[in-house]
Structure formats: C-alpha cells, structure tokens
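ok so I'm stuck.
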Amino acid sequence: MTPAQSASLQEPVRLQKLLAQAGFGSRREIEQWIEAGRITINGTPATLGNRARSSDRIFLDGQLLTLRSVHSERRVLLYHKPEGELVSRHDPEGRPTVFASLPRLTQGKWQSVGRLDMNTSGVLLFTNDGELTHRLTHPSFGLEREYAVRVLGGLSDEEMDQLRQGVTLDDGLASFDLIQEAGGEGANRWYHVTLREGRNREVRRLIEAVGKRVSRLIRVRYGTIRLPARLRAGHWQELAEVELDALLASGHVERAR
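replied:
not stuck anymore, here's the structure
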C-alpha cells in the first residue's frame, strides 16, 4: 500500500488533534485558530466539530499545511534548563529563552511539556507533537514531578506534616505527595518533594504558605525521566522510544498509534 492509499484510508479525527499531532501547535492554540476563522478544510471554513484526515487540503491563513507521517517523525527532547531562562518564545525585555538552545525543526515547532519559572532549573521536556504535549500535561494522567528544593531556615516537623496534609493556596488546596529531608549546611536545608500537579509556582507557594522561603529549586524528575548527571545546563538530549514508552506507562496512559 502506498503512503497516499494509507492516508486515504485513515479514520478522520478531530481537526485540532490532527494538527497538534503534526506539530503545528497545541490543541488549545489550534482551537483558537479555528474559532478565529483562520483554518479551512477542502475550501470550507473549519469549525470546532470538524474531523479531518491527513489527505485533506487544510489551509492556515491561506497557506497549505503539509501533514507528513506523524509518528515516524515525533521527537521528544530532555533539556537541562538553567536558571535565568524563560519558557517563552519571545521576551520583550530581550531575556534568554529556552527555545534558543533547541535544534531546528523542518516541520512544526517545539512545544514545552509544562513550564518552569525563570529561577527554576532542571528537567524540561520538549516535543514536536502537540497531542503528546496534551497527554503528558493533563492532570488526569497524574505524572509525578520531583524537585530538589533548598529552604532558607529549614522546615520543622510540624511544617513538613502540614505540607503533606495540605495547605490552602489562592487557587485551592495543595500538598506534597512526599517530602523528605536531603541534608544541607548552615541556614539552608535541602528537601526532595513530589507532586502530581503543574500549577504555576506551586512548590514555591507551598513553602511560602508555611512561612519559609525557597532559595533554590531544581526539577530532578518528570515521570520516569530523571535529570542525567552528565547533562550540562543549557544542553539537551533526545529521548529514545523505550524512554517515551516508560514515561507514558508511568502516567497510566496508552500510547497512541
């Protein structure tokens, strides 16, 4: 069977899912493009309920989109984000961004799997598959995030218990699934904490909620993906298929085929 024949037999899927899989953006971004009337399918303006195949003629802002084989070209990078870089494509103040350090793509664009704030370093994943981004960040998948956090003044046993049981933040109740002491010297004490959410600055806000301050924060693990000891800050490495399979399995999801 030729590639063209295979494409013609492909079951139609939601338009935003098809384009996200091909790396043109996240599902939410593509939904916004559809609502704005920027996309047409076979000459007809697209709607949010539309389904499409890769063999359809899909235009964005009048430009034909080339939908190549999605799964054969899907890539996932592990990036060691340094402190001082923004998880943003452009910054009006001219500050460095994580995207400047990534390799160029011939199709689509890199999308970050979640975010880290400017002063946080460590594991940050990127992929050219928007649907995969959605799967890896959706709360229902429950992927663990592990951080090494240095706290000025340390935490008392009571404060650690409180962080396990939960504290109320401005966006609701939050807690650490696990918090363990990890040593330290002087006024700074290290802890390893895990949680399964990706709320904005959640680790810092939890520590601040018990009256303490984070002096350093490193994400050391995302799901099954750990920060390699030899991967220098500002550098990346590609994930192997077996690593991606293990990551998806750790979130109790099945890999899309």
